[in-house]
Design brief:
- The chain is α/β, with parallel strands linked by helices and 366 residues long.
- It is 41% helix and 16% strand.
- The chain has 13 helices and 12 strands.
- The strands form 4 sheets. A 5-stranded antiparallel sheet has the order 4-5-8-7-9.
- Helix 10 links the parallel strand 10 and strand 11.
- The two termini are 33 Å apart.
Amino acid sequence: MVGDLTNQVLESAWQTHTDWRFYPIPEDEATSSTGLAAKAQHLIRLIHEQIKGHLAHREGRHPNYEDHFACLKQIVQDETREIVNPLISGSVQQLKDAAASLYLPISAHIDDNRFASLAERASDLIQCIVFHALRGVGAPVGLDLFTDAAKRFPQVDIFSLNHDLLIESQFESQNMPYADGFGEPDGDATLFSWSWNEDAPGVRLFKLHGSVDWYLFRFGSRGVDQYAKLRKDPDHAKDSNGDWISALEIVPSFLTGTTVKEQAYGYSLYGELFEQFRHRVRAHRTLVFSGYGWGDKGINIRLNQWLRDRRENRIVILHGSGEADVRQKRFWYWKWDDYHKAGKVKVVPKWFSDCTAEELGQLVQI
């Protein structure tokens, strides 16, 4: 859960490695981070303290790891002049003053800017923590509706914001095929195909924020950047020629960070997935939601537009706590009465695990 990941970012013990990744320190060896990981974690804690009051006032919540990541990325973008944001100058200067003892002793890898270098490494630390935590998620429980729906309906489109492998595991546990864009084998890796998405029967899985088994193979000896799915540890993977894949050449590929992840929605692999998201939802009149927190602005504006595109477009929400809880979500708070009156939103007081394919069929045909 988000809270568990945030606690790991703030409190768990990590260390850096020569491959530029961060790795957890076993509990019997240390209880706190070491070296650069400790400095990066300290910077994250400083950011946490600086933003917690504003988030409590505006949204009534504590900062989470996505807020930390977004702040770090905005700092790096402003420091490198990639996206200049004059409104954050005062806050950033306060952080610089408070974190001077953290970044002054380190070597800079971004120009001569040690502060930006530490901020970027701190964002890398968050990515590594999420990666390690979600790679260890176990077998799927209560996800039978996915495979039951695939048996009942000739065509199923699944859009997920989760990075874990639970949906894939659900289909694989029942030997049911699904398409996710990765289909061309290259040794231990499976490469993404840009022409994958044919309008054909079957299951298509769109992981709009990426996955913990997705990697970007950096431009190098291959002559091109490539996205690939790799279930093996990168340190023990080989390509089609039998050569070891260098861990220095590949990076995990999934999106983190409130607001900043939306910058990736328009280009490369994620731009392709969001284009298909827009294309696919236009073909549907009912979208069924479960587990979505309604906090992703980039997705929300697309959903809001889709609801207004056609009179018959409607959303069904599986939520065991009922309608009163859903209508308080930020997305729905000012829109609920209008959309509910127009018959465009319906809450079913059931959790995903309690809903059957037969009930789902009735819902999408209403």
